[in-house]
Specification:
The chain has about 325 residues and is an alpha/beta fold. The chain has one domain: Ribokinase (UDP-N-acetylmuramoyl-L-alanine:D-glutamate ligase), CATH 3.40.1190.20. About 35% of the residues lie in helices and about 20% in strands. An 8-stranded mixed sheet has the order 4-1-9-10-11-12-13-14, with helices on both faces. Strands 3-2-7-8 form a 4-stranded mixed sheet. Strands 5-6 form a two-stranded parallel ribbon. α9 runs antiparallel to α10.
């Protein structure tokens, strides 16, 4: 494949997102610590659901493939997906004693706590029959989050989906989304992620996540650069230092839009959803990276993740009034 082919498939606008939907609750009002809270607000969460919401804001046609618990919280997530316009026909209710991914997230920066419950997580019960039912060949671009690879049966199901996508010449873009508490070991994560990379056209992650793929924090950036020899798009994110993008012998260094954040969460989901959304809208790669960075900056200034996702007009207005910094290590 090539970057041009990847973008052409993105612009065919039929996305399948494989990952998780979750439920987030936030101590209210913003700034309240969890241990002092009397009131909470509830929102849709989960990386793939958040990305779907963001991409939908750019006109993306998005279907989510996952499992949620067959209880009130699982049905809340389904109703929220309907609210945001993310197709959930492929979302199955899991009838065992599993539970939907659940997070208590503070709208704070200092001593921030995000407490995530993933014991017997429903999304990790995704199986090969779910992939077959999704008919991979009917989609134009697959977006996955790496947490879907963390445990069985989801791991084998997602790898099966990646192989099917490659057989049908459908590009896959992976957000590494490494959560150590869901993996049996860092060594196993390295093994599985590298296997998945063999099927990906794009890989996006931060410095800590590429350190897992390379096995050495100091080699993460070099790993990302080498990976670009077989992937069309590799983005190495560095937090406040911005990002480095590798594509077709290009190296694009970008900074961030400095803001005063309310919280640290949601930026990665917004970045990826907005990057893909901007490419969908015919922006070139460098512009798309800046749009993704602007969206990420906006999200951390708002409560929640899914409800915080901006639309393109909001992002462009923000970019008119704020400057991206130079970036770089």
């Amino acid at each position: 494949m090539s970057l041009d082919f990847l973008i052409s498939k993105i612009q065919n606008n039929k996305f399948l997102l494989i990952g998780r939907a979750g439920v987030d609750i936030y101590p209210d009002p913003p700034g309240t610590k969890t241990e002092n809270a009397n009131t909470y607000v509830t929102h849709l969460g989960g990386s793939s659901a958040n990305m779907g919401v963001q991409l939908k804001k750019y006109g993306g046609s998005c279907s989510l493939l996952t499992r949620v618990s067959n209880d009130a919280l699982g049905k809340f997530a389904l109703n929220q997906l309907d609210h945001y316009g993310v197709n959930r026909d492929l979302v199955k209710l899991e009838d065992n004693e599993s539970r939907i991914s659940f997070a208590v997230v503070e709208t704070t920066i200092e001593d921030h706590q995000s407490i995530i419950y993933r014991h017997k997580a429903a999304d990790l019960f995704l199986n090969i029959s779910d992939i077959e039912n999704a008919k991979i060949h009917n989609h134009e671009c697959i977006l996955i989050t790496g947490t879907s690879l963390a445990a069985q049966p989801s791991r084998d199901a997602v790898l099966y989906a990646l192989k099917s996508a490659k057989e049908h010449n459908i590009p896959v873009i992976m957000d590494i989304d490494y959560r150590p508490y869901t993996w049996e070991s860092a060594e196993k994560a390295k093994e599985v992620y590298n296997l998945a990379c063999d099927y990906c056209s794009g890989v996006i992650g931060n410095d800590d996540e590429f350190a897992i793929l390379s096995g050495d924090y100091d080699e993460g950036l070099n790993y990302a650069k080498k990976l670009s020899s077989k992937c069309d798009l590799v983005i190495f994110k560095m937090g406040e230092k911005g990002s480095v993008t590798f594509s077709q012998n290009l190296e694009i260094i970008k900074g961030i839009f400095p803001v005063k954040p309310l919280k640290p969460t949601g930026a990665g989901d917004s970045f990826m959803g907005s990057l893909i959304g901007a490419l969908l809208k015919n922006y070139d790669l460098e512009q798309a990276i800046e749009i993704g960075s602007a969206a990420a900056a906006i999200v951390v200034t708002r409560v929640g993740c899914a409800p915080a996702m901006p639309d393109l007009d909001e992002v462009l207005d923000f970019m008119k009034n704020n400057n991206i910094n130079k970036g770089g290590r």
